[in-house]
């Protein structure tokens, strides 16, 4: 089989640290083009692959006609670029949050459908071994029904992650649209929907800029969720955990509690009412491999190769996005927001 | 100085396990009367002290004219009894939540004021050594401003605590008015106000009965708080933590994080951005002594003896109560509620 | 339903510490008779239950006509008493090893069948939570095929367990027939058959009396087993582990290793080739409850009540016994012994 | 004194990782020749030393007339090459197992004797600090007589060790003669003889190929040993411990137990019946030095320099070999095999 | 053999908690008399044994003519009572410090010699398992020569130990003569002499009353010692270690360090320059048995029964005493004191 | 502001590993000259800075006229060089011990005063985070008065530290004047004075050469100190801690104990009489930064820049020196020495 010709649009941190590396090690892929408004950045990425570099993605799409693209641009342009790529006949892997509004998300889904290409959203938390193990345990039924939960994602902010540091687009509202909620919160809304195999019914949230200077995007959010199943819980996203970083989820269930990411040794811990305790060390992979391999790119390529619809579809990404958007609406209106 | 003649009204678990024991070991106190609608229960409590037992507190107040009373009845009667006691000239220590409505709380404060007696609310969390240490550290300034927080209190429910087990008044709404929120949530609203030396500005909450059968009081609540200082956080109260019990508070601050009650060895842990870590084991006292001595009764007696207004005054109790009531209002109206 | 009338035959340690206690807490059972050649011992056991005491089980069977019996006598008499009980119409729970020879075992099975009563053997290792968990994991397939194993059971000998200490029948060959192999080895042959869902094909063993004085029963045995599946492993039984007691089983499999009983904290540990580690603490129950409740008596009673054939049937006990007998034959003949 | 002129015959993994490195750091040695049927391999080894490379050891022996040789070839040629070297007047250090048959071993001993050269076998386990410490403790008498034991050596197989990976001679029976038993089992038969200062009286073993594909050498062996002293124990060699690698020995003695290699921190642990526990961390050396320096080469050179007969003589190697050969005979004949 | 008739003179804490209990469990002993100026105390001790009680030891010695006595009185009377007992023909076990002056010690030794009785001093540190193990290791030579050391004994003072609490004779100088130095320091001077098999050459000390009120005995002492071998070290005795109690000894030697009593788990730890570490848990006995059995009484009785001179003889006790006396002289004169 | 022109006199280990590195990273400093009698060493240090190299400091002072100098020469020349530098108008940072005699120290102070330059002594222990934290805790009063203490500093000797190894000037008495006491002891006399905010009243010491060969400087010292406040304690300096290295200080106080440097995890531990324990991990900085940055150079530069007298002044250095000199005098005279 001939290789899948892939173009990467947006050459910042997530492209450099995840997409490019993972495409590179996938035997089915040929990296053919890189796009970034800062052309030099695109060129640097392209050089090792003998690929072409572009400042304008429309030109690239026309000239290269890639089989597939990764959209790694600032949030504001996820939709427009994804739609253009779909229109150009390319399968689309778009970073999270997939879009800035529900309408955009709907249009992206529609464009992919119309053009017969796949649309997948980069919600990599679903592939992390602790989350895979947690879901497996929940499905086994040993814990019974989930009654309440807490899921949070906090770190000191994108200053240390973005290739542009404090000058990152993450802090410019017109490009980022959202701050910590778009960066981290949507990871957790997607995770909790997937883990519980449940949908969010109602959301309320306090979202603000409590610490960062010279930006008007949110750096801290505390939300509460009511699931369709009746379970209630909290979702926290923060760029102001200057110490005490946290990517954890705790689920209190009928028969005990499951703790994910609360212990440095054992990533999943199940404590049952009958006194039994189960501890799972599933981070060895996470540290050695998934650090490099998020699982997202391989899944995307696998879907293309096998012509299988991706499990993290546009519809899935849209639902996870809508939880976050509802939280913003709650903050803006002072009301709890119901999702359909 | 002659001893303070104290009557205990309501002879259930909290009276038996805290109030009576702590009055008994306080040299300034003479226990003179016990009241419980189940007269036998009052008699059993009274016997060791040669005190009198009553089924009706109004009769007791008239006959005994106590110097002070502890009000340990179900929540619904806190106000009416406290007011009657104040009218009878007795200082009042009332269990939390001090009342069922803000109006009741206001009347209690007014009654105490009018009759020149003290009114104190049993918010014992303020006296727990880890909380005392935490406040001391916050005041030192080493952590800087609090940016966000999480405070939670969860256990498997009052079935195992109440002297009546599953038949406890805790599960009867007309007497309890509130469930986990009245039992546990109000502890945490009081704690967070006191720890941060700050007031709650806005509240939203999802409160429900997600697990308990045959009751219509709440067993699970997830709330979000915005403080006047701008800090935002979450407050959780639950009777459905069947495993993974939790009475913890985590504060993310400008200079690091403080974790209270998250580690079985060290009750307060401070991790600073500069890499320093401070660990405080202050539970030895908590386990040996405070388990028995909450600190509340000694403080109440001390205030009477020295004629000092209690730090956990009716006003304080009222503010902490109003946070909880606002959460209920939020649940009922689907709106975020602002407090004045 | 009327209660099952049970007689206990043999009133030594195993009767006192397991059978009587467990029958006593089973609501379906009435203990009606106790038999021991030392009549006083039978009387002491009988007294709390207002039961009758006998020195001769034949008299008891005739007079009492029990619904069921536990046979807790020295090994040599397991068969004759079990057969007599079956002939008297009683269901039989016999301690392990069920008999001294294969012929006896066959006669016991035949007697039970002929008289329409149940015959169950007291192989309690199958009910221990770590073993239940281990079997569940093996069945899940995560470890793949078992390739080799080691199972051992060693302690300092029955001197400290038997009610007669150093004078115990355990050391008298005419009554015990076997030493450590009958006491401990047959537990492990039964366990390995059940855990692996496999049968022993070939056995060799070195069995001797390497430390105990004044006895000619075996105190130490090292055997090797080849299973029908091709897996090979070792089985050790010892009364001379004066320190370093051990009741452990390790299974090396295609995908990793499972360690049972090797760690004081986590009774089952699974280490997979992919780096994942799973640790199960399932001993809380083992320590609090199973210490008292082996599970054997409840299962026996349950089978009678529901008229279900016991899973640890005479046939099962016979196969486990034959592994041990083959090891003795190997020791005696210098040959490896094949089992059918 | 002039340097000892050494030739290495066979340039695979054991030569590269142990012999050459250790000769190189020994001040008394000059590496003068390297032999390997793959001449390039010999040349690569020879280059750094300005030594000569040969494909044929007979030519080398004639041309170079080395003072000493290391025989690091596949098992099948240990004897013929060692004898040729001895005839050529060279001292011989031969890897374990020293030969394929007892007859070969006898001839090697005879050849060395006749030609007045030393014959030493590379049983490096005797030099490992934990084993040295264990022997010292056994000799002190604190543990009393050894009653039973377990010694095992298992890893995932030579695929990851041999320079030829899955194509290694280890898997070709005509060259390897034995699989895991020759690779690992003979280490443990030598160790147990040396540690206990005792000889094996009887052996039985189940030896098979339970997991490896495309080979007919053994990958798994479970043996039982009876020592002349009466102690009985088990010896396991395996190439199918895909996880749970193990090079441990446990000795149950009259006064307690000694555990060697069972704990990652403390390589030797003694637990006494009187409650005392002694823990020895003697692995620091093992990791830093012995990883590189097995001790074998230094001992061999020391023997030559001081004209001292090597402690691990041909006779010793022969006895350790015969234990393994007896196990194979047991497997083949279905009988226990007595050693003289 | 008839039993040794023993009298205990002085019925305070050390008599009650060690001497009486240990005599009682020694099969060779009959407790025949108890002496205490507080006659009731003597009577209470005597009652369980049907022994006689005296207020005056001279009367007791005349009337009872005991075979042996324990002298458990305040330090000031050790000499006079021991001499009287020896004159009365009784073997003498005297508590430490054996006397208040060197002259007294000499007279005691002389009296014992003249009357043909044994004189033993209660230096129980020599029998503690960690010290026994430490001496064994030092003697093995593995550590080489001791170069320097630190030995200390500190606790919060005898208030919590003495049967008279704060009113104890320990605080009255005319009876105690010395404070912490007599109570604890002499233990360490004896220990270091015995452990190192060496004698103290020079001593200097700062000794004072730094914390205790209403007493003029020393509560804190820091001394430095130069041994005849050249090793130098420090000796600390303190009654003001209100937290951080300590009975430890650290020896820095040519080949490494030995730490005794510095770790709660392992009482003796040897760390060698070559990286090896040896850890000895020898406290199990210390906790279970020696807590009750110091070893001193059994040794004393054993010496009498076997007519063997005690290893902790009067001469030994005298030398250990003289180290302490020299420290006091140093404090008084501002000079270093040489011992012969 | 123009940069401070600094010359480093003496280019051995302390200059290379601390002074030069720390000057280099201080933005206010320009390194202009390096002096060492081994001119090549000075040249190597000077090269990276384009600085000048000298063998003679008098020449350098005249030619360069530095603003400030670091005196990193052997102890014997600290005074003469410091005085010359001061006379040349340079601020002086001199390594500890600042001088060899009190007279020298006085002259250095006088010279600095006369020439209006600063004189600072390199007592870096005061800047180590654990010591800073310890002093902060002592000042808070929580521990009450210090009653007794132990402070020690021991390692295997300067062989492994000095750039000249065993040939180091540290072992030549005419240059070093003192051995372990000058290298380590003066650190601890300075630390204890500073930590306790107290002065030493009396000193006694045993100082000797117990292990090093071919040198007559001291390698081991045990001293006792009496502070003006009455606290007594010990001070140990050793070059013969071949294992068990130690830089620890323990303070026993009225309300508990503070342990500094006794635990590898937590550098400061406070254990209070009320059972509370506080653990401080303040070594992260110590390891990452202070390893490189002692704090001394930055402080020296800061004092010059801000024209602030240094806290570790010549007077401070002189007092700390005099404690050590008194210990030597004690050793020499056999008397305790009082300091004024």
Automatic annotation (TrEMBL), chains A, B, C, D, E, F:
It comes from Paenibacillus abyssi. Coiled coil: none annotated. Residues 4-123 form the Gfo/Idh/MocA-like oxidoreductase N-terminal domain. Pfam families: GFO_IDH_MocA (PF01408), GFO_IDH_MocA_C3 (PF22725). Residues 132-258 form the GFO/IDH/MocA-like oxidoreductase domain. GO terms for molecular function: nucleotide binding. This is Dehydrogenase. InterPro entries: Gfo/Idh/MocA-like_OxRdtase_N, Gfo/Idh/MocA_Oxidoreductases, GFO_IDH_MocA-like_dom, NAD(P)-bd_dom_sf.
